[in-house]
Amino acid sequence: MLLRFVYTVLMTLSWYGLKVIALFQPKIKLFVSGRKKTFADLEAKLPVDTKSIWMHVASLGEFEQGLPILERLKTSYPDHKIVLTFFSPSGYEVKKNTPIADAVVYLPMDTLSNASRFLDKINPELAIFIKYEIWPNYLYRLQQRNIPTLLVSARFSKKQIYFKPYGGFMRNSLKSISHFFVQEEGSKALLESINFKNITVSGDTRFDRVSEILKQDNQLDFMDRFRTDKFCLVAGSTWPEDEEIMINFINTTQDPIKFVIAPHQIKQAHIDNITNAITKKSICYTQLDNEDLSQFDVLIIDTIGLLTKIYSYASAAYVGGGFATGLHNTLEPAVFGIPVIIGPNFKGFKEAEDLVGQKGILPISGQEKFNHLMNGFIADPKSVEKTGQINSNYITNNLGATSLVMAHISQIL
């Protein structure tokens, strides 16, 4: 097929182009160098004649969506090896040592030869792609081998190429998917409009993922010492636009509030900019030592891996990215039954759209609205509780996607 040939040539040319860019861009260097090790890593980690289940995710967010399924697969099918592939370095570099999978590697570029070699090595009995990951040559080879292939927690929109007059090649790639598990009815309707019937509206597995957070031990000694019994705002995954609003309020409020800022960017220069701009007593996580944390107003988290547990101490949360490159995870704080504040750009994030409509997530357009919300929280604690309950109920009402997927898998394996 001509279009497949053209696509494969473009993939090959892209690979060589990325090799050149890798000489100048550290992230692309990881993208390239990591893929050079994929087959050697698989050779070392997977015995000959392995039976495997393969899950592919784009990055960290999709990994979180796939994690509840991976956990169930690992216990339900212990005789299968779990192979997890990432597209992006930002996901792989964080999760490359996760014990949830037997082999964690970068997905080789989407050429026919790579797809054949990869499938020969991992010998999957099931392939699971998360959300948006559609790779035509891998799907084509999976279909040729009659390997069941699922797309999980998927969302579709009219803007995507599958629904355009010129999108025939990508539309045909969807035919390689055995079953679609979509997040909402709109995605189902779009697939039905191009003659797909193998669809289940399952919801989003991330709800199952975040609900597990409530069951884990979220206690942090330094947060116990820092928060005391005061109102605590936790601002997570913040960008400079978010931090400017936070800092202006911190420096001017007279209310006895504790603030935690966990920036998306934790390079020292950026942390220094934040600490220098705050006029109240502040401290960084890496400077805690034996300080009396009850005497500090602001705690800056200059490390990674703590934010989820820190949210459990929040009276309210601010989730960054809504003024910048894209909204970060709002479900992680919402699961604790607290109000969540975000920036104005949340379209395309279904849970944010839903909860803005229900008034559990509160968008702001700038400093004035943020100040108004914070002052309202302090003045009316019952409104904080009521708003937070909306978020908690929303998550509870959307559980169950993982069980639907696993029930389907049980009919395959």
Write the layout of secondary structure elements.
Layout: H1 2-21, H2 26-36, H3 38-45, E1 52-57, H4 60-76, E2 81-86, H5 89-95, E3 103-106, H6 112-122, E4 124-130, H7 136-144, E5 149-154, H8 168-174, E6 179-182, H9 185-193, E7 199-201, H10 205-213, H11 221-227, E8 231-238, H12 240-252, E9 257-263, H13 268-277, E10 282-284, E11 298-300, H14 307-311, E12 316-319, H15 331-334, E13 340-342, H16 350-358, E14 361-363, H17 367-379, H18 381-397, H19 401-410
- β-strand number: 14
Contiguous helical run count: 19
Strand content: 15-25%
Structural class: alpha/beta
Report the uncertain regions.
none
Largest sheet: 7 strands, parallel
Q: What helical percentage do the residues reach?
A: 40-55%
Spatial gap, N to C terminus = 32 Å
Coarse shape: globular
Major sheet strand order: 3-2-1-4-5-6-7
Query: Roughly what is the average pLDDT, rounded to an integer?
Result: 95
Q: What is Rg?
A: 23 Å
Task: Describe what is shown at a glance.
The protein has 413 residues and is an alpha/beta fold. The protein has helices at residues 2-21, 26-36, 38-45, 60-76, 89-95, 112-122, 136-144, 168-174, 185-193, 205-213, 221-227, 240-252, 268-277, 307-311, 331-334, 350-358, 367-379, 381-397, 401-410; strands spanning 52-57, 81-86, 103-106, 124-130, 149-154, 179-182, 199-201, 231-238, 257-263, 282-284, 298-300, 316-319, 340-342, 361-363.
Write a structural description:
The protein is of the alpha/beta class and 413 residues long. The protein has 19 helices and 14 strands. It has a 7-stranded parallel beta sheet with strand order 3-2-1-4-5-6-7, with helices on both faces. It has a 7-stranded parallel beta sheet with strand order 10-11-9-8-12-13-14. Strand 8, helix 12 and strand 9 form a beta-alpha-beta unit. Helix 4 packs across helix 10 and helix 6 packs across helix 7. The chain is globular and about 70 Å long. The two termini are 32 Å apart. The model has no long low-confidence stretch (mean pLDDT 95).
